[in-house]
Amino acid sequence: MDDLRSTFAYVSSVEHRLKSAAALLGISENTLRTTLTESGIEVRRANQENPNAPAVRLFDIQTIFAIAAYRRAKKLTKGPEGKKPVVIAVEIIKGGTGKTTTTCEVAVQLQLQGLKVMVIDIDIQANLTQLMGYESDLSSDDAENFGLTQDAIVNGTFATICSPIMDRKARPVDAGSVIKYPFGPFGPALIPSDTYFGDLESAIVSSSGPRELAFQRFFNESTAGRIPGLNVNDFDVVLFDCPPNVSFVATNAIACADIVIAPVKMESFSVKGLSKLVSEINLLVETYPANVTNPELIILPTYYSTNLPRIGRMQEKLAQYRDFTSQSSISQSEEFPKAIENYLPLTLTKPTCAPVKEYRVFVDYLIKKILAVSKARDLGHTKVA
């Protein structure tokens, strides 16, 4: 019988040879060899029971993330130096644009570049939660039937953590019991979602104070040490996977954000959704000038193909946003649906495939933005909550 797993994904069965592991970490093979020698991190050898077989190194996912953490600790990678995390909301008021895929792939690649990332699923569809290895409706009784440990069960969501803060009278929940680490302790942290996440919208509506600023109270309480098991200042980046609609949940994430990533599918309806998003951002900044800093908007074209007959028209429609549009784009690929079925981000299973390389180019660009935002904020450009 196979060992019980802590997520639906067969994480332990995914291993990479030296070349792929180096690609995941964004370093050369020689640099990876040197890092292994200096760090003392042990890597499994193929056919190690046979001394006459080639000593091929096999890197599992947890080991690769451990190497990334070591490189950051030794200041071999760049990360924000500020005391507070850079908050990123991934949002577009249109479904099916690659929003959740972008959140997941970006979170994983940022962590592989040495940044410490927390990703928060605030979409009731819980697709990000699934993509990172969890089924939100899994019961304790069902876990063993699937060969899973109790760690695979979603015990709470961001709503579980936030609702007591909004109530003000309720006792804070231990966030440590909610947070998941699907790829081990050195991988990105996840606050999952489930089908009951809609309760958070109701909690925001009934809360005191400005409804659009409820999440800012979460950040304040966390940094003040009043949320057991979670201090957001322990992370370099906090990523929200937002619902693809106009709601207080989505608006709150935008109000907290230093950066908003808008994945825009190359079709007209997505451009309309982008226009609504820009209007929402502008309204927030105008309504709460002392609390909401105008976030850095980054438009990421997705499902991109030069063979699309409408590509020229789409580029013309996006021209009005050219100052905010990333130079990189993400191609349409059948690999992404397969990744969801495998409960694993594509980056971790096929690090050298074309769409993963495209996300890597985008993440390199994003890291520059993160560093710039963090530096500017440390110079006094901050939100007042």
| CATH-derived architecture | 3-Layer(aba) Sandwich
Give the CA-CA distance, first to last residue: 53 Å
Which radius of gyration do the C-alpha atoms yield?
21 Å
**Rounded average pLDDT:** 90
| CATH class wording | Alpha Beta
Helix content: 40-55%
Structural class by helix and strand composition: alpha/beta
Number of helices: 15
Q: What is the topology, as strand order, of the major beta sheet?
A: 6-5-7-4-8-9
- CATH-defined fold name: Rossmann fold
Low-pLDDT stretches are: none
Question: What's the count of strands?
Answer: 9
Structure explained in plain terms:
This protein has 15 helices and nine strands. The termini are far apart. The chain has a six-stranded parallel beta sheet with strand order 6-5-7-4-8-9, sandwiched between helices. Strands 1-3-2 form a three-stranded antiparallel beta sheet. With 385 residues, the protein is α/β, with parallel strands linked by helices. It has one domain (79-378): Rossmann fold (3-Layer(aba) Sandwich). Helix 1 (18-25) packs across helix 2, helix 4 packs across helix 15 (354-378) and helix 7 packs across helix 9 (214-223). The protein is globular, with a radius of gyration of 21 Å.
List the helices and strands and how they pair.
Elements: E1 15-16, H1 18-25, H2 29-39, E2 44-45, E3 57-60, H3 61-73, E4 86-90, H4 99-112, E5 117-121, H5 127-131, H6 140-145, H7 158-167, E6 189-191, H8 199-205, H9 214-223, E7 237-241, H10 248-256, E8 259-265, H11 268-287, E9 296-302, H12 311-318, H13 335-341, H14 346-349, H15 354-378
Parallel strand pairs: 4-7, 4-8, 5-6, 5-7, 8-9
Antiparallel strand pairs: 1-3, 2-3
Helix pairs in contact: 1-2, 4-15, 7-8, 7-9
